[in-house]
Amino acid sequence: MKRLKYLFVLVLLVIPAVLLSGCESVTQRADTQDTWSRIEKRGKVIVGLDDSFVPMGFRERDGKLVGYDIDLAKAVFKQYGIKVDFQTIDWSMKETELKNGTIDLIWNGYSMTPERAKQVAFSRPYLLNRQVLVTKKKDHINNFNDMKGKVLGVQNGSTGMTDLDEYPKLLKDKIKGKSPILYDTFPNAFIDLNANRIQGILMDEVYANYYIQHQANAKSYSTYISNKMGADYFAVGMRKGDKTLKKKVNEGLKRLQEDGQLKKINEKWFGKALNFLGPVNYKIK
User: What are phi and psi of 175, to 5 degrees?
Assistant: First the structure.
């Protein structure tokens, strides 16, 4: 009996050690392995995305995947004769999916933040973004102070969630319960906003502008941007070990800017030539 107890205790001690070792090996592999030769050999790179994020990557009524980042990723890898396979993922698990090797890139309105930089490597930034508070005009909410005691919605794992925690005095401390309602996708948040179950959504400006613009009741919404929360930039996220892949993406983006394709893609999705392309070694603030 004592022997069985000893074996049971030993198993309880060994299992966590094995699991921890497995986690460390996955992270170590992600941080050190360069997978470009494998990607080149199979002729395909796998991009993870939230397929409800307009206009970056979303599905039309017929199910076809379209968007700004879809066009941009295809244009970059066309230069290398590599096909892009887009994989829908749980956005809150994006970094885990990347490290596990389920996907090769996070390319879907992915903001550069110091927290994310600890887990992934970023390409050069390619698009300016800000966080915007979206409300209904009938509620007369014109700034963050007007959200006092109101219910706020945020996408789980989003930059809005990060900024909410980073600048609590601006908005988080004012909302009901000092905690937002978390959503898997922004369309679900808009459903609750329209039903008055929440009174505001903190979200990406590029998404808000495009989404509202394409609604029949577009004039019923209000938007507010606080300069105190600052701006952020979209970039491509990849494993830290993928130094060659990072170089290929950066060079591909540069060529798109030089030959005018980047300008055309910007005009297609935003109606104007936002030809921004940040430096390769952009310092994340």
Answer: -75, 165
Give the three-class secondary structure for 82: coil
Helices (H), the chain: 2-32, 36-42, 68-78, 94-100, 114-117, 159-166, 186-194, 205-213, 243-258, 261-270
Per-residue confidence (pLDDT) for residue 17, from 0 to 100: 52
Can the peptide bond before residue 55 be classed as cis, meaning omega within 30 degrees of 0?
yes
CB neighbour list of residue 110: distance below 8 Å, 6 or more residues apart:
94, 116, 234, 235, 236, 237
Sheet of strand 83-88, all strands in order from the earlier edge strand to the far edge = 83-88, 44-49, 105-106, 237-238, 121-122
Angle between the N-to-C axes of helices 243-258 and 68-78, in degrees from 0 to 180, rounded to the nearest 10: 100
β-strand pairing of 105-106 with 231-234: unpaired
The amino acid at 161: M
Separation CA 117–CA 134 (nearest Å):
28
Nearest to 142 by CA among 200, 195, 214, 84: 200
Percent of the chain topping pLDDT 70: 89
Place of tokens 């400006």: 205
d(CA 223, CA 177) in angstroms, rounded, equals 23
- Condensed to tens digits (0 to 9), the pLDDT of residues 270-280 reads 876 666 788 88
Structural element, H or E, at residue 49? strand 44-49
As a whole number, mean pLDDT of residues 125-131 equals 91
User: What interhelical angle do 261-270 and 243-258 show, nearest 10?
Assistant: 80
Q: How confident is the model at residue 54 (pLDDT cuts 50, 70, 90)?
A: very high
DSSP state for residue 157 in the 8-state scheme: T
